[in-house]
Amino acid sequence: MERLKSYVQNSWVDGKGEARPLYNPATEEVVAESSTEGIDFAGALDYARSTGGPLLRAMSFAQRGEMLRAMAKIIHSGRDELIALAIANGGNTRGDAKFDIDGASATLAAYAELGREIGDIKVLKDGDSIQVGRTARYQGQHITVPRRGVAVHINAFNFPAWGLAEKAAAALLAGMPVISKPATATAVVAHHMMRLFVDQGILPDGALSFIAGGAGDLLSHLDGQDVLAFTGSGDTAQTLRSLDSVIARSVHINVEADSLNAAVLGPDVEPGSETEGLFLRDVVLDMTQKAGQKCTAIRRVFVPESRMSAVVDALRDRLDGILVGNPADKSVAMGPVATSSQLRDVRQGIAMLSGETEGIFGGSGEIEPVGVAAGKGYFVGPVLRLCPDPAAARVVNDREVFGPVATLAPYSGDPEDAASLVRKGQGGLVASVYSDDRHYLGAIVPAIAAHHGRLYLGSAKMAAQSMGPGTVLATLVHGGPGRAGGGEELGGRRGMALYQQRTAVQGDKSLLKALFD
Questions:
Q1: Which residue is catalytic, options 256, 276, 488, 489?
Q2: Among 3.40.605.10, 3.30.70.890, 3.40.190.10, 1.10.3720.10, what is the CATH number of 2-257+490-516?
């Protein structure tokens, strides 16, 4: 059994004391263990600031981009082994594992290309120069420079590879060292990725550190030049925001939290059309991919009342073909949820939904998975429920069930009616609207845009190219207001803003030009 070590101060360090076991969620066998007890977290931060930071800042954007490109290639070269580890420790099917691992390498490659485009410079101009005096001689120029601290990344259990890469890509390209802490329960994949990076020697000393377990007193040592980026539950986010170190030292914090993402079927979509097929495919994919454990997964599905019966039948048919079981079996389409506590949370959420919804498919999620011993594994089957009165519903619009669970609800077909229901989610990462009617889209998009970080417009013309609303793209922002945490990541250059300080520089025009052009 492997014992995961942390990588801090340019060395692999094993924690002391009793280790925490990491399980295979399909069989409940222990696959690894980890401990961080006794690790010098204050020293890890200081080393990253004093060694990793200067080395990264000495590199140009193009050079840092080439470093990211090398990281992407390393992940791709170790793809098969990483997939096997994701199946064993994450409960992923092969397709789910590829989604995570390929997303990691693709994100690093996208930021590598951005570094190449920016070129051999170390300071970014933010906009054009501005005349601030009586003549053009006296001007001001906004610039962005790397913060002189550490980016501490606390990642969620569902995407150990992609989560590490998407945060690290933007921070490292911006010129800021990273300490990455994956969720302990599914840390095997991220740990192996870190092993590959270190073994290949592609990272400057102190540029990327890794914590394989609890964070100890790490966060108490943060200061005003540091960044804390968190993905996880809203309750944990609230705890992080209230830390004394964060409040007293104005630590820059970014949060991606809960999200009751919605999908809306437009009244113009004809039965059997390509747009309807895309809608049905996306709903089922988001319910079953990663066992519904995606922060971008569709949770609420709004359908014109006149179409509800046909949509229910179509979704039932598609869900009925999903084989659930041990993801090591290639015939299995959906594996278990990641942990026993996650299973309890999903079952509790389904029970809460049952008070204001009716069962359509899957009952309470009880299932006999294939390929595992009786009573073993953290399995719950796909569950689809119907909410007759979504405007009055509380749980449907307030409780994210982080698993293979979605709720259907009717609306009148009016775009404002749909928008008012979508907004009851109180802020989301992504909402998807399926329609080929430009007037309908022209009404609903501005009515829900302020409540979401991203909108996905599903139509016949883009159906063949679509990756679905659940796919996060490096070139588009990821995050959302309200319940979703109020944060923003990725989005190309926008993703680097979290790790850079915008500064206005005033002076002689020719001097500013010499410094920043």
A1: 256
A2: 3.40.605.10
Q: Is 333 helix (H, G, I), strand (E, B) or coil?
A: coil
Strand partners, 193: none
Which among 126, 121, 146 is positioned nearest to 57, based on CA atoms?
146
Tally of CB atoms within 10 A around 344: 12
Q: How many CA atoms lie within 13 A of 368 on its CB side?
A: 1
Cα dihedral angle (198, 201, 206, 212), rounded to 10 degrees? 0
Phi then psi for residue 462, to 5 deg, are -110, 0
Q: Helix, strand, coil % (nearest 5) of the chain?
A: 40, 20, 35
Question: Residue 487, SS3?
Answer: strand
Residue 77 pLDDT: 94
In order of 62, 74, 75, 269, the CA distances from 81 in angstroms are 30, 12, 10, 43
Q: Which of 33, 166, 276, 295 is catalytic?
A: 295
All CATH 3.40.309.10 domain ranges in the chain, comma separated: 262-474
* Both structure tokens of 516: 């920043």
> Given the structure tokens 């082994």, which residue do they identify?
81
pTM: 0.92
Nearest CA to 296 among 256, 324, 340, 236?
Answer: 256
Nearest-angstrom CA–CA distance, 380 and 348: 12
Joined together, the tokens standing for residue 263 give 């999908």
**CA–CA distance, 366 with 357 (Å, rounded to integer):** 17
pLDDT at 416 (0 to 100): 96
Q: Which of 114, 103, 120 is nearest to 164 (CA)?
A: 103
Q: Where are the beta strands (DSSP E) in 121-277?
A: 124-125, 130-131, 138-146, 151-154, 178-181, 208-210, 227-231, 252-256, 262-265
Distance CA 249, CA 230 (A): 18
Cα–Cα distances (Å) from 60 to 38, 50, 124, 169, 433, in that order, read 36, 18, 11, 15, 41
Specify the pLDDT at position 233.
87
First to last CA, the chain: 55
Q: Over pLDDT 90: what percentage of the chain?
A: 95
Looking at the chain, the domain(s) classified CATH 3.40.605.10 span 2-257+490-516
- Asked if 295 is an active-site residue, the reply is yes
Tokens 């989005």, located at residue: 491
1: confidence class by pLDDT, cuts 50, 70, 90: confident
Architecture of domain 262-474: 3-Layer(aba) Sandwich (3.40)
Predicted confidence (pLDDT) per residue in 16-27, tens digit: 888 999 999 999
How many residues in total does the chain contain?
517
Reported in sequence order, the residue ranges of 200-283 that DSSP labels E, i.e. its strands, are 208-210, 227-231, 252-256, 262-265
Contact, 322 vs 283, CB < 8 A?
no
Radius of gyration of the chain from Cα atoms? 24
Which residues are paired to 430 by β-bridges?
Answer: 454
Q: Is 113 annotated in the active site?
A: no
